[in-house]
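Table 4 source record.
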Amino acid sequence: MRYFLELCLKSVEAAISNIDAEIIVVDNNSEDDSCQMVKELFPQVILIENKENFGFSKGNNIGVVRAKGEYLCILNPDTVVAEDTFLKLLNFSETKDKLGIIGCKLINGSGKFLPESKRNIPYIKAALKKLLGNSKDYYANHLNKNEVGEVNVLVGAFMLMKRDVYKKMGGFDEDYFMYGEDIDLSYRVLKSGYNNYYFGDSTVIHFKGESTLKDKFYLRRFYGAMRIFYKKHFKKNILFDLFVNYGINLVYFFKNAPVNKVEKVDSYVFISNKLNSKIKLSKPIQLQSNNYNVKSGVEVIFDSNFITYNEIITRMENNKEQVSFKILPKNSNFILGSNNAISRGEVIILE
């Protein structure tokens, strides 16, 4: 995660270059050298080093206590924002009354749209259908991925809202350790009379495999979070509670963890103005600049010393071929990427 965090912070720095903003990193007792990296490379960042893993909800609440701005952006460390992401959303925010939470379009490390970017309230029928493989009612399909409009639920990987609204809600519910807290906060914001918005005119990369690894442990945590949500918001009677628990347990028992499909890489395309001599890979590397055509079996490496994050994101999102991507962060000695939510991403250290 340390390398994904470095890439994230470099993209955030580029995005706030013309904004009066602060960056706060909350470390939940990570086992790598993330904290040392932040201290050395980003001395202006406010770093909070927790001595234990408090989970997503409490960790973010601790960070918000230190925040001073009018707006907050809750952001996962395995994300990449474009240079104009925050400016676009802040300009949009200023046009809305009773503003709740704003989310944007998320894509994974392969450029594929992540439907959890916009969701409906997971009422029991929709949630059970989702767990059984039918997600039509779970996601907010009244808007297409490029549209802008009101939705009920947004994803915790990227949430922008006014600090006063966050504080009024009491922040994330710390009963949720990981998963479900974003659904809960979105729902409480709606119940308090605010409006949540999906902003499909801005795209952010979310390398899901780094934070939401899809295995049996993920399934257990996710279904456990759903139990908390239903007990908190929809508890009706004993029979209803038994039905919810039985349904979740049944799906967990029969549902298998996804199987990882390894993408075959035949060659690499390095998008830059020059080929970095430190990059030594097992397959042929072709240097290209702005105009390029790729096909299946190719992995594209973007050099952010030469190309903006906005352009990287656009190219990933618009690519229609079965290719994979990696990014060389500006002034860094590694390339990285994560092609799916099932396996951890790959980091290649350059000598």
